[in-house]
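User: Hey, quick favor. My workstation is busy. Could you predict this chain's structure for me?
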Amino acid sequence: MLKDAEASARENREPTAGLALPIEPTLGAIVRFRGRFEQEWKGAPFGAEEVLVEESGPSFMFQVRSFDYRSSQRTRWKLEAEGSSLLRAQADSDGTTGRARIVVERDGEDVLVRGSLLSGDEATVKHRWSTSAILGPDRMLASWVAISPRLAALAVGAETSLEMGILRFGSAAEIEDTPVHVTRLADELLPNRATPARAFEIAPRVGRKSRLWLDERGWPIRYEVEAYGSTVRYDRVE
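Assistant: No problem, here it is.
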């Protein structure tokens, strides 16, 4: 099955058509980061993501759009936060696995998740949520883009714990609480980079460890995690 997936990814790469859900710049906002990432597994291209981070007054907007080369699934993620507090988020996804539109809004000490799932069903659920927790969609780089500003000032050898949540909207709308422990490692000089990158080890309470590298401004360059017997890697290409 994995060999079939690898072959499919190599044959169905459509970076231009695949990123059809546009990122819409916010009027009057200041662009803090923009980048494009390529995802690969066992040397095969598996997807692409584009990221835009903007600042408008006290609010930050994180926008990510992705294209899965295997399934031709397009997903767009928009999150607005004030300081470290989630205000609202929205996910749109369209492709061979279904079409979904999910809205997440803060409701006091909870968040309200509502909308249409990839399965075609409608869902409305509440989830208890810390005001400082980071939210991101499953299997996307969005969480690590949002987490980066909190890690940039961490000294080598220093550690911190963060509350995170993964949003899923396949057959059910759910947020999986995924607290992580992050350790700043020694800086590394990555290929095709003029200056060393800040390296971090991310250890979730349950599951595999991963690694994140940030540039001198504190934004992601690379992210890696082990999966299906090899390394899934996101590399910033522009």
